[in-house]
Write a structure and sequence with these properties.
Layout: E1 17-24, E2 27-34, E3 37-44, E4 50-55, E5 69-72, E6 76-80, E7 83-88, E8 94-99, E9 111-115, E10 119-123, E11 129-132, H1 141-158
Antiparallel strand pairs: 1-2, 2-3, 3-4, 5-6, 6-7, 7-8, 9-10, 10-11
């Protein structure tokens, strides 16, 4: 839409039922339900061209207000729910999938923090987390402790939970 007068410049062909979204650089990432399945897609903000679309097979379709959250930056797109999924922001390729350590009603969502160019951290509970390289490969624990000390503070400023 045009910010000045609200005119539709280009319609987005997103999911049938939109759940949530986030901005990634000069684009928008939309999570929704299409044909009964969760789907996430990245679109140019100007023009609406779809850059990529990824079906999220095996993830629950939320019923009610406790649905997944999406965070995006230049490096990764994170879907945070009982099952957390991290995608490459450039092409939508799945880098990894993690389950929350707490199951059942009121289960805590998997939490993800990203530091573009360095990697991302995934917490399956408030106390258990692991750093990963930009390609999704787990970082050895000796290197991860140095990463945790240097980048957790910066990451929390970006994505807090």
């Amino acid at each position: 839409m045009d910010a000045a007068d609200g005119t539709v410049l280009a319609p987005l062909t997103g999911p049938t039922a939109l759940l949530t979204g986030d901005a990634a650089e000069h684009d928008v990432v939309l999570l929704g339900v299409t044909d009964g399945r969760l789907t996430i897609a990245r679109h140019e903000l100007v023009g609406g061209t779809e850059r990529w679309r990824t079906p999220l097979e095996g993830l629950r379709v939320p019923r009610g207000p406790d649905g997944p959250r999406v965070h995006a930056d230049a490096a990764v797109v994170a879907v945070e729910d009982r099952t957390g999924v991290v995608l490459d922001a450039r092409d939508g390729r799945e880098l990894g999938r993690w389950e929350s350590d707490r199951a059942g009603r009121g289960a805590q969502s998997v939490q993800v923090v990203s530091h573009p160019g360095v990697g991302f951290g995934v917490w399956s509970s408030r106390a258990v987390g692991r750093w990963h390289a930009p390609d999704g490969t787990p970082v050895p624990s000796s290197r991860a402790s140095r990463w945790r000390q240097r980048w957790t503070t910066a990451a929390r400023r970006t994505w807090c939970w």
